[in-house]
Amino acid sequence: MKQCFARTLVLASLLASTSAVAQDQTLEPVVDAANEINQAARSSQLTVDQIADTTQERLQQFKQINRQIEGLEVYVQQLQRQIDFQQQEKSELNTAIDEVSVVERQITPLMLRMIDSLETFVNLDVPFLPNERENRIINLKDLMDRADVDVSEKFRRVMEAYQIEADYGRSIEAYNGEMQVGGQLQDVEFLRIGRTVLIYKTRDGEAMGVWNQNQRQWQELDSGYRSSVQEALRIARKQLAPDLLMLPVFTPSSQAGE
Predict the structure, then answer these.
(1) N or C, which end of the chain has less CB nearby within 10 Å?
(2) Residue (of 128, 242, 239) closest to 191 by Cα position
(3) 1 band by pLDDT with thresholds 50, 70 and 90
(4) Residue 50, pLDDT above cutoff 90
(5) What does each C-alpha distance from 36 to 29, 45, 49, 50 come to in angstroms?
(6) What pLDDT is recorded for position 175?
(7) Is the pLDDT of residue 160 over 90?
(8) Cross-strand pairs, 16
(9) How far apart are CA 240 and CA 172, in angstroms?
(10) Distance (Å, rounded) from C-alpha 68 to C-alpha 54?
(11) CA dist., res. 134 & res. 120, Å (int)
């Protein structure tokens, strides 16, 4: 009886072992397939992650390019406005260029008349700085004959000469020069106060004279004015502060006054 039981157990064990081996052999393809599926899933997930990263990067690039396009559109619009404005200026310049010859023909005679008038004025004016003023007019006449100088520059120089002459009437000036005094050429100091007073004084102060515009000649000045003239010369040279002075003044209605 015992022997039959033992055989039964051995047989059962063999059957169980055989069944397990058969089961393992049956499940092995399934496990391998599952592993392949898992590996494919991991590979697919990596691919999806890479696609997602690439898509996000492309989206950022797209947004950046859109911002650049918007900026370029604004820039192009600004350039177009500038081009339109330049086209308008070009048209206006072309019109002005067409009129230059007409303007030049009109303004050149005007400048010549202005120079002649200025020369006449200087000749009739109080005779201060005669060489400087005469040379200025000579230079203007020479300038008008030059072909290498623009009309605009010629006009500017003429207007500058007029401005200088106008400024003389609002200034006080002391300068050195020479003139005939007592039949001799002497170094003198000139005092000019606007166009109202022109006085000379010799270096030693022994002789003084004032220009009489009514008679258009020099008139001897009394020695009593010596201190006032000396003080006025120092004021003109900015060596003293401006002050009230007693000096002779000629007016059209009188021979002399103070």
Answers:
(1) N
(2) 128
(3) low
(4) no
(5) 10, 14, 20, 21
(6) 94
(7) yes
(8) none
(9) 13
(10) 21
(11) 11
Question: Comparing C-alpha atoms, which of 147, 158, 152 is closest to residue 113?
Answer: 158
Distance between CA 227 and CA 198 in Å, rounded?
16
The answer to whether the beta carbons of residues 184 and 203 sit under 8 Å apart is no
Per-residue pLDDT, averaged over 96-111, amounts to 80
115-127 average pLDDT score:
95
The model's pTM is: 0.59
Kindly write down the DSSP assignment for every residue of the chain, as one continuous string: -HHHHHHHHHHHHHHHHHHHHHHHHHHHHHHHHHHHHHHHHHHHHHHHHHHHHHHHHHHHHHHHHHHHHHHHHHHHHHHHHHHHHHHHHHHHHHHHHHHHHHHHHHHHHHHHHHHHHHHHHHHHS--SSHHHHHHHHHHHHHHHT-SSS-HHHHHHHHHHHHHHHHHHTT-EEEEEEEEEETTEEEEEEEEEETTTEEEEEETTSS-EEEEETTTTEEEE--GGGHHHHHHHHHHHTTSS--------B--TTSS-B-
As a whole number, the mean pLDDT across the chain is 83
Q: Decide: residue 62, CB within 10 A, 0-12 exposed, 13-18 middle, 19+ buried.
A: exposed
